[in-house]
Amino acid sequence: MDKPLFEKFAxxxxxxxxxxxxEIKKFLFDLFSINNESTLLDIACGSGIFTQLMACGRExxxxxxxxxxxxxxxxxxxxxxDLCYVPVCGCGEIIPIKTETCDIVSVxxxxxxxxxxxxxxxIIRVLKPGGGIVLIWYRRKDLKEPHQAFIxxxxxxxxxxxxxxxxDADYVGMLLNDGRFHDIGQKxxxxxxxxxxxxxxxxQRSKSFIGDAMEEDILETFLxxxxxxxxxxxxxxxxxxxxxxDLIWARKS
Length: 253
Hints:
Blueprint: H1 10-16, H2 22-31, E1 40-43, H3 49-55, E2 63-67, H4 70-79, E3 86-89, E4 102-108, H5 116-126, E5 127-140, H6 146-158, H7 171-178, E6 181-195, H8 197-205, H9 208-212, H10 216-229, E7 239-252
Parallel strand pairs: 1-2, 1-4, 2-3, 4-5
Antiparallel strand pairs: 5-7, 6-7
Helix pairs in contact: 1-4, 1-8, 6-10, 8-10
């Protein structure tokens, strides 16, 4: 990624992106035997949505949320009244953390933006022996649902370069072929989020293939059409989105 995305609408990003199911945290803490002295690093954390989940209830100094964008980090600091982690400006290709200090290094909804080999080498460097790499992606559960088809149609219309599979790759195969990890696994979780219309529009605007990809006048037209049309699927004004969360993990050999 040549330049930070999401900065134009950082506050929208912080307030509207879906949260992560707490079951993911419970699963990872059990899998990697995380205790009160364990150190966690969340890379490409954006406004810290996954970081905050992992950090709450822990000593803040033991959890770092790292992003190359200071604007996104500030948006998270403003959004969370009780910030549970330490914000750090940096990127996965050059991690400003000492060698073999982390029990878990996570990347939630961000590894596809990073240079794979440079980032993996840096993650290996900062992980303790036996420490865990955690990669997570969420996606809308079913793009064939009527309201999803409506949104997808508008997105393709106003951003012809939009590819709904832009995050997809064989990440398990990547870790297997790397040779520096073992105990590789994957698991799917499910969750949902409800939106009022205003927050739903902010969520659309926060997406890289919408807010960052569309010119200002095109974006305004797109959002107006979303606002005018989404109500036919949710007449009570409460929009429910269902998500699937794909978790991939491995241990440093």
